Amino acid sequence: MKASILQIPVSRSFFFAACLAPLSLAAQSVTIPSGVPLRVQVDHRYRVRAGTVIEGHLIEPVDRIDHVVLPVNTRVTGTILGMRRDPQHSRFRALLDGQFRPPSMAAVRFDSLRLPGGATLPIQTAVTQRDATVVTMSAHEKSGLRAQARDIVKARKREALAVLHHPDLGDRIEKWVYAQLPWSPPTIWTGTEYDAELTSPVTIPGPQPAPLLEAAQHGTPTGVIEARLLTPLNSATARHGAPVTAILTRPLLTPDGKQLLFPEGARITGLVTVVRRARWFGRNGKMRFTFRRIEREDAAPSVIHGQLAATEASPGSHVKLSEEGTAEPSAGPGKYLAPMALGIMAASAFDSDATSNPIHSGVDSNGFGFAARILVMGSANAVLLHTFAVYAVSKSICFRWIARGHEIDFPKDTRVQILLNPR
Questions:
Q1: What's the pTM?
Q2: Taking residues 356-371, what's their average pLDDT?
Q3: I need a surface site. Which of 77, 119, 270, 414 has the fewest CB within 10 A?
C-alpha cells in the first residue's frame, strides 16, 4: 500500500513533464511567416523531366527579428514539375536569333529543408527563377566613344577571366553552345537561382527573438539597409507618385551593433518620383523611387530619406544607377560599336575570295547562330554568305537604333539596398 502511495507523485510528475514538454519546445522555436522568399541555388545540372528530384542550397540567409534562423548553405530539396512558357521573352525575337524552340523554363517546387543540425522540415513554396546580378550606385561621367570602347573591352576581359576560373566551366561552355543551336534539350544548369516563396509558415527550432527596443530610444536611422520589394515596378506601367513598399531582410542595428533599431520584417514605404517608359529609336525607360517612412509593430513610424543604392538586375539589361538613385538600362558602347563591327564584317563578306576560306565565311555569317555558319561554310555559296552578313547588320541596327528601347523592371521580391540619408 505504501508502495502505491509513493508511486502517485512520481506518475504525476511524469504526467506534468509530458504536458510541459511541447510548451518548452514551442518556446524554443521561431516561425517564419508565409510570403518570405528563400533564395536557392541549384547544385547540379538536371535534364528537365517531371518528377526528377533536385538539390540546392540557400545563398542568402533568412533573418527573423534580430538573428539568423536559416543560414547560408542550408540544404533544400525539390522536384521538377515539367516545363512552362517563359512570359518574359518574345517568341518573335527568338525566331530572329535562330531559336526555333519556344522560350520556356522548368517549373520547379521546393518541398523540404535540411537544417544544419540534421533535422528535415517540410515546406510549401511557389518558385520563380532568378537571373540577376547586383548593380551598385555610381557616378557616370561623360566620355568619348574611344574611352567607352576601352571600358567595354576591359569588362569583356573580366567576364572571360571569370568564366575561365568558374568551377562550372564545362556547364557554361555547354550552355553557350546550346544557345547557338536552333534547338537544345531543356536543362536546369548548375548555379541556376530560384526564389522559393513560402506559401505557409515554417517553424524552425531555435531561441526566442530578443525583445525590441522602445521607440523613444532611437532617432532618424542612417546608413545602408537591405530590403526586398513587395511592390513590382515596371517603367511601362508605373506612374509618378505611385506607392512603393519594401520589407527589411536584415535587422538594422545601432552603430556599435549591440542594440536593435528595426527588426527584420519592418515595413518601408515610399513613392515613385521619376518614371519614363521606353520609346522608339532605342530610347530606354528609367525610374527612380524614394522611401519616406519605416515602421515597426510596437512603435510609431519613423521618417527616413532613403534612395536606391544597389539592386538586382538581369545581366543582359545593363542597368545603371545614378548618384540620385535613378535606374536606367544602358546599351553602352555596344549600341554603336556592334553595328559598326558587323558592318565591317558584312563588307568583307563581299570580297571575291570570301567564300574560298571556310573560317572567313563562318565569321562573316553572323546573326543566326551555328545553323547559318555551318550552312555557309558547308555550301561555300556567296549568295548565302551575303544574305546572312547583311541580315546580321540589319538586325543589329533595327534592334539597337530603331526599335523601342528597354524598360526598367523590378519584379516582386527584388533585393535592394537603400541608402538612408540624415537630412
A1: 0.76
A2: 56
A3: 119
